[in-house]
Each structure stands twice: as C-alpha cells, then as structure tokens.
Amino acid sequence: MTDRDPFAEGERAARENIPAEANPYQNGSDEHALWAAGHERIAGAIEARESEGS
Question: pLDDT for 29-50, tens place per residue?
C-alpha cells in the first residue's frame, strides 16, 4: 500500500504553478481524478483571489 495522496499532490502542484496537464497519473484512474480535483481546488482559489484583485 502506498502512502502517497494524489489529492494533496495536486494541491501542491497548483501552488507551485505546475499545469494541470502535468498530472502524473494514468488518465482514467482514481488517482488521476483525485490529483485533478486537488489541483482544481487550489487553482480555482488562486484564480478567484486574482480576479478580486487581492
């Protein structure tokens, strides 16, 4: 069993400005979906802050 957390990895990638296309997991896998969800959560929050001008 692995101790990796794809959701947290996706969040970290978004904070480091790594594009969503860099998802390291196989397309269609649960890990791919989790990584993408984590990335979108952070990227969406960053985008919202930037559009508010803060």
Answer: 999 999 999 999 999 998 888 8
